[in-house]
């Protein structure tokens, strides 16, 4: 009873964790940049200007130009669309399939639980890059195949998170009351278990979003992600590696874009965890 008033007091002193504020601001900058790129970029992304190739950052080209004279800022703006879209859809695939699997495993137990978890172990044995190689060997490289590879890698992550949290909730009094009332396990999972997992799943989604950005960049770096002429941060890094000595901005700018995006999403995930679990803030 003595600890009960502490929660509102803690919330009133620090309603929003600093990491969430900073991470949200960085993420918002990236998202807004990607949205602006739908209607405006400083230059046409595919416009080639050999006379202006490898121009250092200037007022005309704030991020410089590449070996074809294309504006790097414009390419990064459009590349943000690709990175965010791939990561978002991949996380959606992982959560959309993994969460129901985790809830089912926790609710059914027995051989169902064993089958789901051993399937998870099988998928975990193949990293996203290896999955992408296998998929592109059959269907060819591209953004869609990168989404499938990253999405498949996310499925066991969400399955484990949902199952682990749901297992603890199945022993709660309100769940036992629902079972006594005659509700099916599926209905209990949807009405009582899932709503209590949402905060945890949101935090995990933010973390996997950051992982998806890095995975997409890595796949594009080795030529398995978005294909030309679609700009991609990872492919920009790959193209810059032979020119980093005399045109370092070609690697610095897309690398900085990846860093800011991943940092923003990671801080947002950490801040959301603190927001949903005030005990973490009190411990800090």
From TrEMBL:
InterPro entries on file: BP-dependent_transpt_permease (IPR050366), MetI-like (IPR000515), MetI-like_sf (IPR035906)
UniProt key word Transmembrane helix: yes
GO cellular component: plasma membrane
ABC transmembrane type-1 domain segment(s): 80-269
Membrane spanning residue stretches: 20-40, 84-103, 123-153, 200-224, 244-265
Main location: membrane
Record's subcellular location: Cell membrane
UniProt keyword annotations, A-Z: Cell membrane, Membrane, Transmembrane, Transmembrane helix, Transport
Matches recorded under PANTHER family: OLIGOPEPTIDE TRANSPORT SYSTEM PERMEASE PROTEIN APPC, PEPTIDE ABC TRANSPORTER PERMEASE PROTEIN
Family designation: Belongs to the binding-protein-dependent transport system permease family.
Descriptive protein name: Peptide/nickel transport system permease protein
Organism this protein belongs to: Brevundimonas bullata
């Amino acid at each position: 009873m003595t600890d009960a008033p502490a929660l509102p007091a803690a919330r009133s002193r620090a309603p929003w964790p600093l990491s969430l504020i900073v991470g949200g601001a960085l993420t918002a900058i990236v998202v807004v940049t990607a949205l602006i790129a739908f209607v405006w970029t400083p230059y046409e992304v595919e416009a080639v200007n050999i006379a202006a190739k490898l121009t250092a950052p200037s007022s005309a080209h704030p991020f410089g130009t590449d070996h074809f004279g294309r504006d790097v800022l414009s390419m990064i703006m459009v590349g943000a669309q690709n990175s965010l879209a791939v990561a978002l859809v991949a996380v959606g695939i992982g959560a959309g399939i993994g969460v129901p699997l985790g809830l089912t495993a926790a609710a059914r137990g027995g051989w169902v639980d064993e089958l789901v978890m051993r399937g998870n172990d099988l998928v975990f044995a193949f990293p996203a890059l290896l999955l992408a190689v296998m998929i592109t060997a059959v269907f060819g490289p591209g953004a869609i195949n990168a989404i499938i590879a990253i999405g498949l890698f996310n499925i066991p992550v969400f399955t484990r998170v949902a199952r682990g949290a749901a297992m603890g909730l199945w022993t709660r009094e309100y769940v036992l009351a629902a079972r006594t009332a005659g509700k099916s396990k599926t209905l209990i999972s949807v009405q009582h278990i899932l709503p209590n997992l949402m905060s945890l799943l949101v935090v995990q989604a933010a973390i996997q979003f950051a992982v998806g950005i890095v995975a997409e960049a890595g796949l594009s770096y080795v030529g398995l992600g978005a294909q030309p002429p679609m700009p991609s941060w990872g492919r920009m890094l790959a193209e810059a590696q032979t020119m980093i000595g005399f045109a370092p901005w070609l690697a610095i700018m897309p690398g900085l874009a990846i860093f800011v995006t991943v940092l923003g999403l990671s801080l947002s995930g950490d801040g959301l965890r603190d927001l949903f679990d005030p005990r973490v803030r009190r411990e800090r």
